[in-house]
Amino acid sequence: MRRTTCRLMVTALFALPVAVLAEGEHGDWPSYASSPASTKYAPFTQINAETIEQLGISWFWDSVDNEAVKVRPDYVPVGYKSTPIKVGNTLYTSTSLGSVVALDAVSGRQLWAFDTRTWADGRPANMGFNHRGVSYYEDGDMKRILMGTNNAYLWSLDAATGKPDPAFGDGGRIDLTLGLGRPVIRGLYSNTAAPMIVGDVVVMGAVVGDAPAYGFRPPEGHNVPPGHVRGFDVKTGEMRWTFHSVPRAGEFGADTWKDKNWTDTGAANVWTLMSADPELGYVYLPFGTAENDFYGGERPGDNLFSESLVCLDAATGKRVWHFQMIHHGVWDYDLPAAPNLVDIVVDGKPVKAVAQVSKQGFIYVFNRVTGEPIWPIEERPVPQSTVAGEKTSPTQPFPTKPKPFDRQGISEDILIDFTPELRAEALRIIAPYDVGPLFTPPSLKGAAQLPSDAGAANWTGAAVDPESGSIYIPSMTLPAMFKLGELDASKPEHGYKRTSMTFLSGPRGLPLIKPPYGRITAIDLNTGEHRWMVPNGEGPRKKLIAAGIPDPGPVGNQGFTNIMVTRSLLFTALVDDGRPVLRALDKRNGALVREIPLPAPPGGAPMTYMADGKQYISVPVGGSTDAKLITLGLGGNVKIDKKALSEADQLRRPDILRVAQLYGQVCASCHENAVKGAARAGDMSAWQPRLEKGIQALYENTINGIGEMPPRGGCGNACTDGDLMSLVDLMVGDAE
After folding, report:
1. pTM score, whole prediction
2. Pick from 600, 606, 627: which is nearest to 618 by CA?
3. Higher pLDDT residue, 18 or 559?
4. Which residues make Cβ contacts (< 8 Å) with residue 211, sequence separation at least 6?
5. Which one, of 334, 125, 116, 330, lies nearest residue 225 by Cα?
């Protein structure tokens, strides 16, 4: 079964009745990432280095969620992440609370909205109310919008009216909790990614509630849902096939599970976006970790198909080839993003390639037809676990080319060294923990990890220029510490769980490691060589200067960055040291061309399209009670005033609507994106160690400031002490 590429059933190629990999045809952006190839590329040039000074906001749309929160204040979304698609003269998008919306591409006028009532089933699995987009299908006069929901349904709507398709499933929807081989708790099974449609099949993965890594366990007698991927008839909703992410007895890969079989192992799911090659009829699936994310003593073996890239025949669900990036994963190194498909030329020979970025900072490049690595991938020895019952893999795959796009492993050499005193303090910070190279496993004393489980790369993925074969990868350099602890001896299902996790900050509120703290890396996929790397924004440059350190120049941000590329420019959307911005870079060298302020933090990926002869760029921003889709064009001059906070009434505890409003405006830009180690709202395992001294100490730290947290949470006099305490309660959730 070991070890590099497993390649079976490379079938005869055939044509499917759908469409093209070509980006930007008719000025459209018809898929979440521009095309099924997930390039995030458009061949438009109207917005370029010479004209970008004229770029401004042409129109904006206020999400229907903003009013919904006022009606149902118990259901509060966080960052708005949905990237629209554009077909014809219409944009289609989703909202965090589960509405589907059509907008006029030129004016932003809302044409229709349909509420799937996702919120009616309560808080979804893992990260709460968030969503990333919808998909479009057309066959003659039949035009449909498909969306998987946070409460585990797949909807098909008429693209012209927004009404459910009565021929699809039961009244326009199918229940995705059914047909998985065992009962599934709806609250542990969710869909946030845009579906992938190949021919007449819609392929669906799922978000699966991580347990026990995120501080909860399923009710007694229930297991974590399986991460199986399924194909459904795009017209009727009938299930066509199932690919078992944990193979059943007798199936290929079952021997990689040793003592554990398919009946009760969960996760190993595709929670992120997928890619497809309609001409080949293949779909490419980036799988995540099997549960338990950080301890595998109860699942001995390599655990196919967890943390693998799997190519399936989309018509049948049959495996064509696969490659496992992590054997027996214990780091939560899910494959986090859709792989990028691109045609390249290697040693003078044309190759249909697929490139997969990873949390661990590697990019893996394969022939997408056969699964053969473009450059050798070597099995190398890695550190072994010392935790009772755990047997980690003795080796892991290391690509020989391209080189990693971010730093890997913790050592003295990478620690902050602006002064000898700072270096000495940084050494004291890591002294209590196990430290070592990439793949140092979690331990009972705590293990420092770089990259963290938030990545190097994450769901924001990469962008590819198909004309040059260059890939552009945003990444963050964010060390973390993971500690394991025993579960209740009376409930020994998992043996150990992650009991503590914290992003590791450095001395005196500075970063622990040397800059850059976030970067954009350009790699030529024709040669496997790095073209350039630049720090991703200013980052904490001002803070370093204020600490008496000579100006280091831009040092980059430790936060998520979305990316898009056109024929003329490379665009990034991020929060740069607290400033929400859209940045335009020179593709040739990464130099900043222009920075455009945004009215709120960008939560999702930018996209671009042409309408009535004009190029536009749309960016989802904000969240909570102030989510918007911002659309920019040349000559745009619409002004958006930041929504005024309601007057503080000095009550100790404000109403939940005000708390939600403050969270979206003040807290989300850092906490939603784990900037500088900020704990995400609702992530119980991240908040529990912060509560060791009690909730009152956390209130005081928020009011007075500590480490990277500014006094009063950066809210200043706009927030009362009661506001700040309620914000803490909102983010801590059930961890208290």
Report:
1. 0.88
2. 606
3. 559
4. 188, 217, 218, 224, 266, 291, 292
5. 125
User: What percentage of the chain exceeds 70 in pLDDT?
Assistant: 85
The strand pair at 85-87 and 90-94 is best described as antiparallel
Residue 707's pLDDT is 54
β-bridge pairing 90-94 and 592-597: unpaired
Contact 428, 448 (CB under 8 A): no
For residue 690, give the 3-state DSSP assignment: helix
CA dihedral 119, 123, 128, 130 (to 10 degrees): -10
pLDDT in tens, 113-163: 999 999 999 878 777 788 999 999 999 999 999 999 999 999 999 999 999
99-104 and 41-42 as β-strands: parallel, antiparallel, unpaired? Answer: unpaired
Cα distance between residue 580 and residue 578, in whole Å: 7
Strands annotated E in 335-385: 340-346, 349-357, 363-367, 377-381
Domains of the chain, with CATH numbers? 5-634 (2.140.10.10), 656-735 (1.10.760.10)
Joined together, the tokens standing for residue 167 give 């021929």
| β-sheet bridge partners, residue 96 | none
Q: Tell me what the mean pLDDT of segment 297-318 comes to.
A: 96
User: Structure tokens of 512?
Assistant: 């622990």
Tokens of 381: 């020895």
Q: Are 670 and 96 in contact (CB under 8 A)?
A: no
Tokens 């990890």 correspond to what residue?
Answer: 449
The C-alpha atoms of residue 305 and residue 685 are separated, in whole angstroms, by 26
